[in-house]
Amino acid sequence: MPDQSDWRCDAKGKSLFAMLLPPHIQSIQKLPAAFDLPDEAIVLEDIEKKLIHRAIEKAGGNKSKAAKLLGITRRKLYSMLERLG
């Protein structure tokens, strides 16, 4: 039987074992506080744009690496850049 560090609870209190989840899901622990929603309205496109530009900056301008940081393809990154401006 897995120990407590191997399981997570959902919002309804149901347990599921992290080892049964795909690896990319297993690595998700908790969203940072920066993702808490404010009381006022937010513009999702602004958040996407900032996150994309931060990833590009962190990747030293390399868009392929930035796409990997974001968990998307390079093609999707270029599509988002074009859409968001």
Protein architecture, described:
This protein is mainly alpha-helical and 85 residues long. A hairpin with a 5-residue loop joins strand 1 and strand 2. The model has no long low-confidence stretch (mean pLDDT 76).
Furnish the topology, listing elements before pairings.
Elements: E1 7-9, E2 15-17, H1 23-26, H2 44-58, H3 63-70, H4 74-84
Antiparallel strand pairs: 1-2
Helix pairs in contact: 2-3, 2-4, 3-4
The CATH architecture of the largest domain can be given as Orthogonal Bundle
Average predicted local confidence, pLDDT: 76
Q: What is the spatial order of strands in the main beta sheet?
A: 1-2
What's the CATH H-level superfamily name of the largest domain?
Homeodomain-like
Distance between the termini: 50 Å
Counting DSSP E segments of at least 2 residues, the number of strands comes to 2
Radius of gyration: 17 Å
Number of helices: 4
Strand content: 5-15%
- DSSP helix fraction: 40-55%
Main sheet: strands, sense, barrel:
2 strands, antiparallel
Oligomer: single chain
CATH class of the largest domain: Mainly Alpha
Order of helices and strands: EEHHHH
Shape category: globular
Structural class: mainly alpha
CATH topology of the largest domain: Arc Repressor Mutant, subunit A
Low-confidence stretches: none
In short:
Helix 2 crosses helix 4 and helix 3 packs across helix 4. The chain has 85 residues and is mainly α. It has a two-stranded antiparallel ribbon.
Observed structural traits:
Arc Repressor Mutant, subunit A; 2 domains; 85 residues
